[in-house]
Amino acid sequence: YTLEEKKIIFSKFALPKILRRMSLRKEECILTEEALDTVVELYSDTSGIRDLEQAAEHIAANALYQIEVDHVKSVTFDAEMVRNLLR
């Protein structure tokens, strides 16, 4: 997959699938454009999409944790947050 294809797969399929499974609304787990680019960049050397789904799980789980524990309404991930979370 190209980087652009991975970005589309992550944002349109992998992340929404994981959010549904965790009963999160898309408004509760937001990624900036730079955060999306960072996810794809971190997994640019992988050929499949399994790693993208795992990244989506980490991000969604972190959002769910912050919503439940810190009582925030939503979490917006920027590039730095994604880098720290996925390394």
Explain what this protein looks like in three dimensions.
The chain is mostly helical. It has four helices and two strands; from the N terminus they run αβααβα. Strands 1-2 form a two-stranded parallel sheet. Helix 1 packs across helix 2 and helix 2 packs parallel to helix 4. The longest helix is centred in the last third of the chain and has 20 residues. The radius of gyration is 12 Å and the shape is globular.
Which descriptors apply to this entry?
87 residues; mainly alpha; 2 strands
How is this fold's topology laid out?
Elements: H1 3-21, E1 29-31, H2 33-42, H3 50-69, E2 75-77, H4 79-86
Parallel strand pairs: 1-2
Helix pairs in contact: 1-2, 1-3, 2-4
Summarize it.
The protein is mostly helical. It has helices at 3-21, 33-42, 50-69, 79-86, and strands at 29-31, 75-77.
